Structures are given as C-alpha cells and as structure tokens.
Amino acid sequence: MKNRLGILVLFVVFSLISVYYLVRTWKVNDIRKEAAAYATGKDGKIDASKKQRYLDSLWKQDVFLGSTLEELSKQELGLGLDLQGGMHVILEVSPTEIIKTLAKGSRDPRVAIAVEAAKKAAVTSSTNFVDLFVAEYRKLAKDTKLASIFSNTSNRDVLNLNSSDAEVIRYVKAEVDGAFDRSYKVIQTRVDKFGVANPNLSKIPGTNRIQVELPGIDNPERVRKLLSGAAKLEFCEVYSLQEINPSMEAFSALLTKIDLESKIKTAENKIAAKDTSKSSLASALKTKTDSTGTDSLANANSLSNIFVASPTGGLAVRSKDTSRLNAVLKRPDAQGIFPANLTFLYDVSPVENPVTKEEVVPVYAVKDHGNAPIEGDVITNAKQDYDPMTGKPDVTMQMNALGARKWKTMTGANVGNSIAIILDNYVYSAPNVNQEISGGSSSISGGFSVEQAQDLANVLKAGKLPAPTNIIEEATVGASVGAKAVSAGVLSSILGLVAVLIFVMVYYSKAGWIANAALLVNLVLLLGVMASFGATMTLPGIAGLVLSVGMSVDANVLIYERIKEELTAGKSFITAVGDGFKNAMPSIIDSNVTNLITAVILMIFGTGLVKGFATTLLIGIFTSLFCAVFVSRLLFDYNIKKGKTINFKTAWTEKLFKDSNIDFIKKRKLFYIISSAIILAGAISIGIRGFGLGVDFKGGRTFVVKFEKTVNTEEVRTVVEGVFPGSNAEVKTYGGFDQVMVTSAYKIDNTEPEVEKQITAELGKAVASVNGNKGKVMSFSKVGATIANDTIWSSLKAILYALILTFIYIYIRFRSVAFGFGAVVALFHDVLVILGIFSILNGILPFSLDIDQAFVGAVLTLMGYSMSDTVVIFDRIREYLREKGSSKEPIETTINNALNSTLSRTAVTGVATLLVLLILLIFGGETIRGFIFAMFIGVIVGTYSSLFIAAPIVVDAMQRRLEKDGDAMKVVPAVEVKK
After folding, report:
1. Residue ranges of the SecDF P1 head subdomain domain (predicted)?
2. Closest CA to 542 of 592, 497, 504, 602
C-alpha cells in the first residue's frame, strides 16, 4: 500500500482526537454526577437549585486540560429529548398580524377578507404567504394598487403612492422576514436565559418557523408562555449609584447579617453531626485555594461580596450569583430597603472582568419597570447606521408623534443620566442622555461594533410590528420515559454490536478479527466526531449508530470476497490482498455514494427523529469507509510483514455459495408476477383500509398513556370520549398491552397555551382509573394542520429527489439508460411493497405502523440500502459485460453469472444488517419500533429487488434495444466503462 506511513499517522491522529472528545464528554457527565450527589438530600431527593449552584461555581473554571465546564458542555455528545426527557417545540411567526399592521392605515375592508382567505389557503399550499395575500386581494380589487394600502408616513422613505406592486411586494416580504429574524433573536435570548443545559434553537430553512429543543424541561406550561408571549420593549430611567447609596449601605448590612446567620447554622450542623474535621462546603465543591491559601470559593460565597464593579462602569454581579441575588431581593427583610419603583435588571450580555477573568453581568437600578413611560409601540423604524462625526457604528431610531413628545420630556429630564432600553426584562443598552431630543429622531452610540448595532436596531424594531409566535408542533417527553429509552438504546446497541462481531468472526475466521477491529475503530471515530461537533444522541441516532456498524460490514465483505476470488485464481496471498482491495474499490465507492445521497436528503428534509438518524448515518458513511479501506489494509500489511497468512473461511462457510448457479434471469417473469401480486394486494388494502397516518401527517395531539396492567383499547376510548367533544379519539396499543396511544384533532387550531394544559389535565383525570386500572400520561405531542401539510409535501419531495438523483448517478456511472431504468423501477417496487405491507399489517401487529415522517426516513434509508445493493451487482454486471464484450454469449447468461458471483456478498451483508435490525426491533424501544420494522422489511425487499427485479429489467431493456437495432442474436454488447 502506498503512503502507508501517512495513512498510519492520519489514523493515529484521528483516533487520538476522537478519544479526546469522548473523554471530554465523560468528564462533563462525571461533573454532573458530582453535582447531583452534592445536591442530594437525606431523603434521596435532588435540590435543583443546589445542583445548579455547584455547576455554576465551575462554569468558568478550568476543569479539564485548560477547558472550562462551559466549553466542555458545548462540545459533548449530549442526550436528546427522547433519552433524557424534555420538550420539543416548533414556533411559527404569524405573517397575518404583520400584514394587518403594515396596512393598518388603510380603511379598505377587503384587506381583512384577503388576509383570512390567504390564511385558509396557506393550510394546503406551500406558496409564500405574502403572494397568497396579494392573489386573494387582487380577486377582490383588480384595479387597486397595493401602494394605496401599505404606503404611509412611517415608510415614506421606501414607498409612496406611485410605487409599483412589485416594489410593495418586495417591501412587505422584507418586513415579514425582518419580523421573523427579530422574533428569532427574542426567542434565542429567552431560551439562553431559561437555564437549560444544551438547548437547541434553529431556523427551519424556507419557512418562517423556529425549532426549539429544551432537554430536561419538566414544566411545559412555563415553556409555552415563555416562547409564545409577545415581546415587551420599554424605555426606563436608571437610578445613579449616588441616588441609591443609602439603600445600598442598608442592603450591604442585610447581606452581612445573612452571611452570619449562614455561618452559625453551618457550625450548628457540624456540632450536631460531630464533624469538625473539614469544611463541608469546601470539600463538597472540591474548590481550589487562591494564592494566599484562602478558600476562594468560600470567600466568593459570601453574600457581602456579591456585587462587583462592572468593567463598563456601575454595578455588576458574577453570572453564577444572579440566582442568589434574586433570592435575597425576594426576602421579606429586603423589602422596603430600596425605593418602591426600583427594580434591579440584568444586562442581556455578560462580560468578562479583565482582572479576575470571571464572567460578570452588569446590573441596572431601573425606575418604573412594568409601568414604563415609553413602550415599543411608538417606534416606527430603527436601523444600524454610522456616526457622521466619528464614522463609528451607531443606531438611528424614529418615533411617532406621541412617542416624540414623550421622548422629549424623558430625555429633557435625564440629561447626564442613563435611559435603559429593556426587552423582555433584560437591558440591551443604557445610553447616557447628552441633551434633550425633540422631533422623535434619535441616535444611539456607545462604542458598538457593527453586529452589536444591528442587534440593538433589531431589538428596537421588535416593538414596531407585532409578530406573535404560535406553537404549531409540540412534544413533551417525561424523564422516566427518557430513562427507559436510554436503557433500551444501550442494551440494543451492545447486543447489536456483539451480534455483528460474532457473525463476522464466525463467517470469515481470522480475517473476521481484522474486520471486527476495523468496526470497533469505526465506532470510536464515529462517536468522537459526533462529540467534536457537539451532536446530540437520540434513540434513532443510536439506531443509526448500530445500523452504520452493521452496514459498514459491507465494505469489508466486498474486499474479502474479492480477495477470495483472487486466491481462487491462484495468486499469491500478497498479490491477492493488493488486487482484492483495488478491485473492490469501485463497488465500495458506488455503494457509499448512493448511501450518501440518501443521508443528505434526510438531513435536508428531515426533522426531529429523522434528522438524528441522518446525522449519525452521514458521519458513519465516512468513518466506516475510512476504517474498511485504510485501517483494514494497515492490519493486513502488518500481518504480511510478519509473514503470516490470513484465512478467510471456516469449515462450514468454505462451501457456502461456492459454484452457485441459480438462474435468476430465466425465472424473472415469475418474480415479476409475485411482485405484482404483492403490490396489487397492498393497493387493495390501501383502497379499502387506508393507512394509519401519524400525527405529523394529519395534525392533532397524541398522548402516550401507561397503565399498571393490561388495558382494553375500547375501554380507554369510552373513557376519553368526553375529553374530546365533537372530535374522534383514536386509541391504539403502543409498546405492549399496558400502554396506549391516544390521538385527536380536537381544538388543534387553538394555539392558546391554556388549551394544552386543560386538555392534558382532563385526559389525566379520565385515564386515572379505567375499570380500576390506573393510568398516567407519559408523553405528549402536537402537530398543527399547516405543518402536517408541509410535512407531507417535504416527504414526497424527498422521495422524488432521491429517485431523480439516483437515476442521474447511475446513468453517469454506467453510461446506460438500462441500468438507470432498472434501478429506479426497483426503488419504486420497494416503496410500493413497503406501503402495501404497512397497510395490510396495520392494527394487527402490537406496535404502531403509522405512516409518518419517521416512516419516510425509513423508506429513504432502505432506498439507499437497496440502491447500494443494486449498484454492487451492477458493478459486477458491467465488469462481466466488459470482459465478454466481443463474445457471442447471450446477455442472460452473462448477467446471470454476474449475479451468482456477488451472491455471497449480498447474503453476508443482508444477514449482518438484518441481525442488527432484529435486535433493535426487539430491544430498541417503542419510539423507533415502527421505524425499525420498516427498515427490517425494507432490507429483505431491497435485497430481493436487487436480484430479481433490477437486474432482470436491465436484461429486458438491453434486449429491447438490441431488437430495435435488428440484432436477433441478443449477444453481449460492448459496454463503455466510465472509471
């Protein structure tokens, strides 16, 4: 092997980096366990605030090789919602309210009618909402210019009555997009301040939707209010330190008193426990001592030191001490110390103290918070600009007439003082007032960077347009459900991995050990890469992990089967190994590219479970390719250098598939009939019984209810009917006969947070006892009608794109329409068979067979697997056609021989993959059982179609071409080979 040293160095570097990131993940989890142990009381319960205080104390401290706990947390292999519980939400920024606000100066009643019509049309259309509105308005007012509705004094620098409809449409779309960006910023700030470890917030491309994942959340009601509440922008005066100095002295005295009480209580506890050997706090927190030998945490823990000087001037508090300050301010003896209209608010952006290197948060003593003299509704525009005198970035702001009058009064009374700009109870800026400002136009400067100025402009504009966010998809997973999923995931992973390792070792003898070593290295690299990206491990991700290990066997099998053929041809072991690796490469590359196409499409169109699976699959493609090709070769070369010969077969596998001579092509019409019969049966079932559509395809709410013992679904349906008046409730067994899934579209269009709380509470009461069988709601999910429609369209597009890209790739690689046609027909065959099976078996098997996005992900994955299997066969067919290009051998014979020559590879890869899927199906947990079942059936169908559908269709297509050309002999044609 060329460049052996370079590859060895690369392997060592990759391995060390992967191990490093995995150790970082282990370290941060170890710290969390220490925090939980520290916060666990005598009753076994964990004090959440105490645990958070422990973590806060280490947040900015070096805890592992120069990395802080914060840095470790950002690059760890975290657990998804399904593995630790939490909440998943998709928010939609309502464009209807934005358009109404932009047109509020117009008295045209047709605007409201067009908005409502566009709102209804949006449910079943993927067209931009602004375009839908314009289309509906033009139906009502063909000759009315849009400028007459949207042009007003606040946007006169952009629009006027002479502006064209195209200009108005661009303006409205820009405002809608801007409102979405501002809403995203607001939601991002709220999530960051929520105190959740590793929250995930992202924009969904091509939509005005935001996806939020909050692991560990156990208060869904609070999250709903937090995410869907309107942004509140306020302008408030700020007390100077001189004004509140007497109050600060009194507050300092209170802090000293509280410190003393705490010390006395600690001493009493020590005496009671007869423990005077060490400081319980210092030992529990395992803190360092400073240069003077004093316990630094003990000093920092003193409340009298809670306030520090802000690097930007004024007061500040350490980030880790904000919760402690809040607690003290709520104490009864703290009430009355400060003026009644004073509220301490934090700056939205913590800063680093240049001396101590600690993260501190500036604190402002704000006047009249909650009853501000000026609020965001007076803002007409704000934008990032540049100071004409200094050339530095600043922010210009315009107010309406009412705001201008209030602003003049407020600035005139506060010359030399600060005015805080507050959004959602956080101070975004507190500029000093240099002079009275009249006219409603202001310039805010303060040493901003361009990005900071843009952010402040967005904050100011957040009060300009109401952009309410509606929760259109929601899922809540309880911690106990997550713990169960972790156990299922770990168990299935270990069993699946062990099963594959044993199978490979038994089948390939000593060569199996090399393949297994490569598989284990692949596992380490895969997990390490995921950790370095800060990826989140979900239950489908675990399935993808184990499945990628199973499918990575394929590359080793391709290589080993090639080496066996070279050895059979009489070549020396060294030559056979070299030629085996070389000749297997085209098939390995082709099969991995087809899997890559599928993984990329899943990444683009998938969300939630599917995206977690796609992430693992995508990374696994590259790591498994590297390990199979390079790591395996290094191990072979090592054995060759030692003069060792490696055996590739055992006594019972030696004769398997040897000299196989199955006539696949001759019986192709029989298999066409069998496949047609299965597809027809499926079509009849679909026509009569239909599908069990998942909630993400039809919209609605889904609840998983767990009972103490076996429960009858009809009894549950009778009990819960009253919870969903006027709407059908679907109840089906879910993961065993003691658990059911309840689905209903009741009030699905109502986005009020109180509705979710009410329905969940009523269902909880209804299932609390079903004929004496106690039930409990374990998890909840909601999908609105609009997003359900979008999910259907995105799923159909994903499958369509997969088919198109597959055909293009096959055509480019094989330069033959026959091969591309055969591959696409086989894929259509696979999809139709799976759909039919799911319809036929729906309601028969004891787990959900709903058609949902996870099912689509499974279909796309099996399409990739089937295509990978097919392309390996096509590679061998192409090779045989090239070798027999000048012979008189019939096409059927040539292709039949090619199929037999790849039979061992097809069987071994199929068995290894099915073995993994079977274990995942049994032990993987209910969340992914339908997904894995689709994969399991898909692998069988995909293997079948590669042999009995795809290849025979290539034969038929080539024969038709020859007959068209007048060649009655139907001999092997010369094939152009693209390398």
Report:
1. 371-467
2. 497
Number of Cα atoms under 13 Å in the Cβ half of residue 600 = 11
Q: Measure the CA–CA gap between 594 and 807, rounded to whole angstroms.
A: 10
Q: Check whether residue 410 and residue 539 sit in a common domain.
A: no
779 and 809 belong to one structural domain: no
CB–CB of 412/373 below 8 Å? Answer: no
Tell me the residue range of the domain where 173 lies: 90-230+469-474
115: exposed, middle or buried (Cβ count in 10 Å: 0-12, 13-18, 19+): buried
Look at 163-167, 281-285, 573-577 and tell me which has the smallest mean pLDDT. 281-285
DSSP 347: B
- pLDDT band of residue 289 (cuts 50, 70, 90) is very low
Q: Are residues 666 and 711 in the same domain?
A: no
Distance of CA 799 to the CA centre of its chain: 20
Residue-wise pLDDT for 909-939, tens only, equals 888 888 888 888 888 766 677 778 888 898 8
pLDDT confidence bin for 2, thresholds 50/70/90: low
What residues form DSSP beta bridges with 344? 365
Per-residue pLDDT, averaged over 826-850, amounts to: 85
What sections of 815-950 are H helices per DSSP? Answer: 817-841, 853-883, 891-901, 903-923, 929-945
**Residue 919 in domain:** yes
Domains of the chain: total: 5
Classify residue 372: in a domain, yes or no. yes
Same domain, 718 and 738: yes
Q: What is the distance between the alpha carbons of residues 863 and 280, in angstroms, rounded to a whole number?
A: 60
Residues 6+ apart with CB under 8 A from 478: 85, 218, 778, 779
Do 162 and 225 lie in one domain? The reply is yes
**What is the spatial distance between Cα 826 and Cα 885, in angstroms, rounded to a whole number?**
26
Contacts of 795 (CB under 8 A, 6+ apart): 605, 697, 853, 856
Within-domain flag for 285: no
pLDDT at 607: 61
Q: Are 856 and 795 in contact (CB under 8 A)?
A: yes
- pLDDT at residue 286 is higher than 50: no
Rounded Cα–Cα distance for residues 613 and 688 (Å) = 33
pLDDT at 608 (0 to 100): 57
- For 470-502, b/e burial (b = at least 16 CB within 10 A) is bbbbbbbbbeebbebbbebbeebbebbbebbbe
Count other Cβ atoms within 10 Å, centred on residue 702.
Answer: 20
Q: Judge whether 282 lies within some domain.
A: no
Residues 662 and 798 in one domain: yes
Q: What is the pLDDT of residue 966?
A: 52
